[in-house]
Description:
Elements: H1 12-19, E1 25-27, E2 33-35, E3 45-47, E4 49-55, E5 58-63, E6 69-74, E7 80-86, H2 89-94
Parallel strand pairs: 2-7
Antiparallel strand pairs: 1-4, 2-3, 4-5, 5-6, 6-7
Amino acid sequence: MAEARLPAGWTLQRIRDVSGDREAVALHTARSVTWRGSAGADADEEVRPDIVLGFHGLCLVKPVDDEDWYMGCLNDDGSADCWSVYGDLFEALRGL
């Protein structure tokens, strides 16, 4: 199983403080993540996650080779569907 990681320079407590979610967790990256932010099914794109953070059914995903953070939902099967993107983690955490 792929490891659960935190972003460089961040602790789990800091992520919880900024997001307001006291139960936020780092999740393993062995999951399917789909970007659904563009209109139309043809625009769906698979994202290879480097870091996944979980927040009561919502998630933030930092893809491999991308500095943006994708927000979405965690599905019952462990996959994630993302619909919005943020330029930095602090902004994404505040957007939850």
